[in-house]
User: What shape does this take?
Amino acid sequence: MLSQGVLVLNKNWVAVHVCSVRRAVSLVVQDCARIIADDYQIYDFDSWRELSQHVENHRNDFIHTPNFQLLVPEVILLTAFGRMPPRTLKFNRRNIYMRDRYTCQYCGTKPPKDELTIDHIVPRSKGGRSAWANVVLACQSCNSRKGSLTLAESGLRLVRTPKKPHWMATLRNTLRGPDRPLWQKFVDAAYWNVALEEE
Assistant: This one.
């Protein structure tokens, strides 16, 4: 329960991070954040504790202490931090998996994560670089079939052309929470309202 995710908004109400319930409650107790309820009301720790005593929660998402129960927050609002996350996107394994949606980019299958590999479209043995436009996820079968061949030589075709994703799209995937309608209100707003930069 204490390690589940809580959406973090900056002081401008823009989604910037996900932290654990433990960290969220700590920030609220330290007066660095406030809790946002489904009706957009803002609560400090004492008012949230009082509200928790009068709320029936059918999901049983409570932190129980010897003296009181505390409703687990879903979204917190930072009181001082107003910046946005960095607008750069790291070229790393995690972001490649998210960009390609854990799907083989040759056959379109979605095998278990540990059965996916990162393949160079133009093989490194033929001068291919490790860059957004030259790497894709491949299932083991397609990766074996392609080997160190080019696409034309292997007869494989890409499901879609790889490119560097926009930083906000990746943040949006990170912030998607299972069955969290309150999260979606802020994540969708951040995604659609952010200013795009030309590359």
Summary: The first strand starts at residue 5 and ends at 9.
